[in-house]
């Protein structure tokens, strides 16, 4: 039994009950034990084979300076992770696919020997009961929008990201569809700076194209005070690897800012 390394009774073995008892004890540990002291202060946490085989529930603490990896061996088994580190933990094998656990969340995973697969999405979302998957991203600073120029918006901060829909550093304009998702809803909102000249537009692009069924688009006259714009898409059919970006445009005659604010955000929610 190589996955959990349980001892096996040999044919005609004397005192076979001893081996059976040892196997029962290891199985109980694998299904019930907890390590409550994984410390992520120094960054990535890597489990030993023994820690992974013999423990069901892993609790991550510490005070990391940013997001980190929680790396498990390539051994087939289900397991559970609670993240109390204050940062996002990416649960993965050394080279396979991964899932994320936000601060304050508990998630159930399965390692298939290569990849880590999320079996639940979140226990912190209230009545959803583990059915929610998606991401909500925001700006870390104002973004300048040149006059009469389509400008793709960048999102350098995450409110949440359940399954690596977004990366704060690489292609951070994108919300990318992960494996296992076939339908999504995309929504977004922006707050422009104070200027009442010209018009303002926001639109959605899918994998670099503005030609797809259900594309949201909004065009309004600028307001004397701050102009607010938002959109919500219908349910959109997608395939893994598709990505969405929000594009802004204005014709005030000069550059204008979209402001980094709680009212400026971009979101993807998985439906199926």
> Which regions contain 5 or more consecutive residues with pLDDT less than 50?
123-130
Main β-sheet, in a few words? Answer: 6 strands, antiparallel
Q: How many DSSP H or I helices? A: 2
**Fraction of residues in β-strands:** 35-45%
Number of strands: 22
Order of helices and strands: HEEHEEEEEEEEEEEEEEEEEEEE
Class of secondary structure makeup? mainly beta
Shape call = elongated
Helical content stands at: under 10%
Query: What value does the Rg take, in angstroms?
Result: 24 Å
Distance between the termini: 36 Å
Mean pLDDT: 86
SSE topology sketch:
Layout: H1 16-32, E1 34-39, E2 45-46, H2 49-53, E3 57-61, E4 68-71, E5 77-83, E6 89-92, E7 98-101, E8 106-111, E9 116-118, E10 134-138, E11 143-145, E12 151-152, E13 157-161, E14 175-176, E15 183-191, E16 199-206, E17 217-221, E18 228-232, E19 236-237, E20 243-250, E21 256-258, E22 265-270
Parallel strand pairs: 1-3, 2-4, 3-5, 4-6
Antiparallel strand pairs: 5-8, 6-7, 8-9, 10-13, 10-22, 11-21, 12-20, 14-20, 15-18, 15-19, 15-22, 16-17, 16-20
Would you give an account of this structure?
The chain is mostly beta strands and 272 residues long. The chain is built from two helices and 22 strands. The strands form five sheets. Strands 10, 13, 15, 18, 19 and 22 form a six-stranded antiparallel sheet that branches. Strands 1-3-5-8-9 form a five-stranded mixed sheet. Strands 12, 14, 16, 17 and 20 form a five-stranded antiparallel sheet that branches. The protein starts with 15 loop residues before the first helix and ends with a strand. The relative contact order is 0.13. Residues 123-130 have low confidence and may be disordered.
């Amino acid at each position: 039994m190589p996955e959990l390394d349980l001892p096996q009774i040999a044919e005609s073995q004397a005192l076979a009950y001893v081996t059976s008892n040892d196997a029962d004890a290891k199985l109980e540990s694998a299904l019930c034990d907890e390590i409550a002291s994984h410390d992520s202060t120094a960054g990535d946490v890597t489990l030993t084979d023994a820690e992974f085989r013999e423990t069901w529930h892993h609790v991550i603490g510490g005070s990391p300076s940013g997001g980190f990896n929680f790396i498990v061996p390539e051994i087939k088994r289900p397991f559970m992770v609670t993240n109390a580190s204050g940062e996002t933990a990416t649960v993965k094998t050394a080279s396979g696919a991964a899932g994320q656990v936000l601060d304050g969340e508990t998630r159930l995973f399965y390692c298939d020997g290569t990849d880590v697969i999320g079996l639940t999405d979140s226990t912190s979302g209230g009545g959803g009961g583990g059915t929610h998957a998606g991401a909500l991203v925001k700006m870390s600073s104002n973004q300048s929008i040149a006059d009469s120029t389509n400008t793709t918006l960048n999102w350098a901060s995450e409110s949440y990201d359940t399954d690596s829909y977004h990366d704060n550093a690489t292609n951070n304009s994108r919300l990318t569809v992960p494996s296992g998702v076939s339908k999504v809803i995309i929504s977004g909102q922006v707050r422009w700076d104070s200027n009442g000249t010209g018009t303002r537009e926001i639109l959605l692009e899918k994998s670099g194209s503005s030609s797809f069924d259900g594309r949201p688009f909004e065009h309004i006259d600028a307001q004397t005070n701050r102009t607010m714009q938002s959109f919500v898409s219908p349910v959109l059919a997608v395939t893994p690897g598709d990505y969405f970006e929000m594009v802004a445009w204005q014709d005030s005659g000069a550059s204008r800012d979209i402001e980094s604010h709680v009212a400026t955000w971009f979101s993807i929610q998985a439906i199926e």
